[in-house]
Specification:
Length: 101
């Protein structure tokens, strides 16, 4: 004997359609949520890199600012830097330079 399939009731059809639509919406919003989470993670990593770079720049700035302050305020330091880096001498001095052999 062949079984006759029962026709689907309208309520059951509507329920199946709503379930399918809900499943599609869950998948759609889930993918949007995952993409947003990935973007947030990337932005947080970028922020951490930029903050580290900023701290490094601030450290270098403070070091150079201190060096400049010493050059302006300490005449002995200024003289030492001028002698070492620029090879300056006093008018009555003779500078001897030796090359390594």
């Amino acid at each position: 004997m062949l079984k006759r399939e029962k026709p689907l009731k309208p309520e059951r059809v509507i329920l199946l359609m709503l379930s399918g639509a809900l499943l599609i919406l869950v998948i759609f919003f889930g993918s949007i949520l995952l993409q947003t989470q990935r973007e947030l993670s990337q932005f947080q990593e970028r922020e951490a890199r930029l903050e580290a770079k900023l701290r490094q720049a601030e450290l270098e700035f403070n070091q150079k600012e201190g060096y400049l302050g010493r050059l302006v305020e300490d005449p002995e330091f200024l003289e030492r830097v001028a002698r070492d880096r620029l090879g300056y001498t006093r008018p009555d001095e003779i500078l001897f330079r030796f090359t390594p052999e």
